[in-house]
Write a structure and sequence with these properties.
Layout lengths: L3 H29 L4 H21 L9 H19 L1 H6 L5 H12 L15 H16 L1 H8 L7 H8 L12 H25 L4 H12 L17 H14 L3 H8 L5 H5 L1 H24 L4 H16 L14 H13 L12 H19 L7 E3 L2 E3 L3 H25 L4 H12 L21 H15 L3 H4 L4 H4 L3
Antiparallel strand pairs: 1-2
Helix pairs in contact: 1-2, 1-3, 1-6, 3-5, 3-8, 5-6, 5-20, 6-10, 7-9, 9-10, 9-11, 9-12, 11-15, 14-15, 14-16, 14-17, 15-16, 18-19, 19-20
Length: 485
C-alpha cells in the first residue's frame, strides 16, 4: 500500500529547493530592476508555503521509500515542480494562459525546449534565466540533483534513482549513490562552466553565455533570442555549441572514467559511444551531400550546418543555426531518425538511447547466428560484459511501447487538425524531448503557440513520459500498482 505521508514529506522538502531557485532569480530581478521581481517574490512565497504544508502532512512519516512509493514520488515531483514553476510566467503576465505556462515549464524541466512564446526577446532577463535554469536542473533530474546535494532528503535513494535515471543499464562508480551523484554533477558543472568560458571568449555576452550554456549542458534548447544561435552569425560559436552538445550527449559516467580515472581506452572500446559517433558521421555526410547537390550550399557551410543540426537533434537539444524546414525532405527523414535514436544513456538527452540501439543490433545478429547454429548459447555482450537476459523483454517492451505511443499521439494530433508531417514530428519531438518539429506549419524555427489547447496538454504529458522513460509514468496507471499487496 502506498504511504502518502512519506510521499508528501519528500515533495514538501523538494519544493524548498524550487523556492531556493526562485530566490536566486528574485535577486537577479532586483539587480536588473525589471518588472518581474514581484512575480518571483510571490511565486517563491507560494512555493515555500506549499512546501511547509506538504511537509506538515508528512510530519510523522519515516525516511525509507519502497519501490512503489519511489515511482510515485518521481512522477509527482515533476508534475508539482512544473505547476509551481509556471507561476513566475503567469504572475508576471508574460504568459497569461495556464495551458501555455504549464507547457513552457514542462518543456523546460524535461529539457524538451519547445516554446509557445513567439517573441522571447521581449522577456525580461530573469524570465529568460529562469527558463534556462529549468533546463539545467531538469537535465540530470530533479531528484538526482537532490541526491547529489542533500542525500538525506530522499529516502530509498537507489529506488528513486532507478525510477528517474535514463537507459536500461545502471552503472555505479562508487558504493554510495550520493557519491556517484556528486561526481556526475561535477562533470555536469565542468561542462557548463567550460561552455560559458568558451562562449564568452568567442564574443558572446556573459548573460547569454550562461543561459545558452545551461540550455546546452541540459540539452534543452531554450534561447535568449528568437533566432537561437543563428542570431550571432558566428561559425566559431556554432562549433563551440556543437562540441558541448556532443559532450552533453555522452554518458557522464564514461566522461568521469576517462577524465578523472584516465582510462582513455574505454572511450574507444565503448559500444554505445561508437554507435553515437557513427550515427552522427553518417547523418552529417548524407545531409551535407543533399545540401550541396539540391540546395546549392557551399561545402564548408553544408558541413557546418549539417553537423550542427545532426548533433542538436540527436542530443535532443533542439537549437538551430539554419532553417532545416527548408531543406530537402530526405534530410527530414535523417533528422527524424536522429530525434528517435537520441544519444547516450546516462546523459542529459532524451530519445530511445544508443545503448538500446546497440542491444537491438546485437539481438538481430544473434538471431542470424541462431539460424545457423540452433543449439548455440549466444549471450549478449556490451563492452565485454554479459547482459542479463531479463533485459531483452524489457528492451522490446520499451521499443514497442515507444512506437505505439508515438503513433497514437500522432493520430490524436492529426484528428485535432494538425497536418500529418507536423503531427508525427510533434509527437516524436515531445516524446523524445527534442523540441523542434519538422514541417511547413510548425517548423524547427517556429514556436508551438498555434497548436490547439488540448494538443498542448497532450504534448506536456508526452514530454513527461519521455523524460521519465515511459514505464515510470505508465506503471502508475496499472491496477497492480495500487493493489495493497
Amino acid at each position: 500500500m502506498v504511504r502518502f505521508d512519506i510521499v508528501s514529506k519528500i515533495i514538501g522538502q523538494l519544493l524548498f529547493l524550487e523556492g531556493g531557485m526562485m530566490l536566486s532569480c528574485l535577486v537577479m530581478a532586483l539587480c536588473y530592476r525589471e518588472d518581474d521581481a514581484m512575480a518571483f517574490l510571490i511565486s517563491m512565497m507560494l512555493t515555500i508555503c506549499s512546501g511547509l504544508i506538504f511537509k506538515h502532512l508528512g510530519r510523522n512519516a519515516g525516511n525509507e521509500l519502497n519501490r512503489r512509493e519511489a515511482y510515485l514520488v518521481v512522477a509527482l515531483i515533476w508534475v508539482v515542480f512544473c505547476a509551481f514553476g509556471m507561476l513566475p510566467l503567469l504572475i508576471s503576465g508574460y504568459v497569461p494562459s495556464v495551458t501555455d505556462a504549464y507547457f513552457e515549464t514542462m518543456s523546460g524541466f524535461t529539457t524538451t525546449g519547445a516554446t509557445i512564446i513567439d517573441d522571447v526577446e521581449c522577456l525580461p532577463h530573469t524570465i529568460l534565466f529562469w527558463r534556462s535554469l529549468t533546463h539545467w536542473i531538469g537535465g540530470l533530474g530533479i531528484v538526482f540533483f537532490t541526491i547529489a546535494i542533500l542525500p538525506s532528503v530522499v529516502g530509498g535513494s537507489i529506488k528513486v534513482f532507478a525510477a528517474e535515471s535514463t537507459g536500461p543499464i545502471k552503472t555505479k562508480m562508487h558504493p554510495r549513490l550520493s557519491t556517484d551523484a556528486k561526481w556526475i554533477w561535477t562533470v555536469y558543472l565542468a561542462i557548463t562552466a567550460s561552455c560559458v568560458l568558451f562562449f564568452h571568449v568567442a564574443g558572446m555576452g556573459l548573460f547569454d553565455s550562461v543561459c545558452f550554456s545551461m540550455s546546452i549542458a541540459g540539452t534543452g534548447g531554450f534561447a535568449t533570442y528568437n533566432d537561437s544561435l543563428a542570431h550571432f552569425n558566428s561559425p566559431s560559436i556554432e562549433y563551440i555549441a556543437t562540441v558541448f552538445q556532443f559532450l552533453a550527449g555522452m554518458n557522464f559516467t564514461l566522461i568521469y572514467v576517462v577524465l578523472f580515472k584516465r582510462q582513455f581506452a574505454k572511450l574507444l572500446t565503448n559500444s554505445e559511444f561508437k554507435l553515437y559517433c557513427v550515427v552522427i558521421a553518417i547523418a552529417t555526410a548524407l545531409i551535407s551531400y543533399f545540401l550541396v547537390s539540391r540546395s546549392g550550399y557551399g561545402a564548408s557551410d553544408a558541413v557546418r550546418h549539417a553537423l550542427f543540426q545532426v548533433v542538436t537533434f540527436i542530443t535532443t537539444t533542439g537549437m538551430f543555426t539554419d532553417d532545416a524546414g527548408q531543406w530537402p525532405h530526405f534530410t527530414w527523414v535523417v533528422l527524424g531518425f536522429c530525434m528517435f535514436i537520441g544519444s547516450c544513456a546516462g546523459s542529459t538527452s532524451g530519445g530511445f538511447k544508443c545503448i538500446r540501439g546497440v542491444m537491438i543490433l546485437k539481438i538481430i545478429r544473434n538471431e542470424f547466428k541462431q539460424i545457423l547454429h540452433p543449439n548455440a548459447v549466444l549471450p549478449i555482450k556490451i563492452n565485454r560484459q554479459n547482459i542479463q537476459m531479463n533485459h531483452v523483454p524489457s528492451l522490446l517492451a520499451f521499443f514497442v511501447t515507444y512506437i505505439l505511443i508515438c503513433l497514437l499521439a500522432a493520430t490524436v494530433i492529426i484528428l485535432a487538425g494538425v497536418d500529418d508531417t507536423n503531427a508525427i514530428t510533434i509527437a516524436l519531438s515531445s516524446l523524445s524531448n527534442v523540441g523542434p518539429a519538422l514541417g511547413n506549419t510548425i517548423g524547427p524555427t517556429m514556436s508551438w503557440s498555434s497548436l490547439p489547447e488540448g494538443v498542448k496538454w497532450l504534448c506536456s504529458l508526452l514530454m513527461l513520459i519521455g523524460r521519465l522513460e515511459i514505464m515510470t509514468v505508465l506503471v502508475l496507471f496499472t491496477h497492480s500498482f495500487w493493489k495493497e499487496n
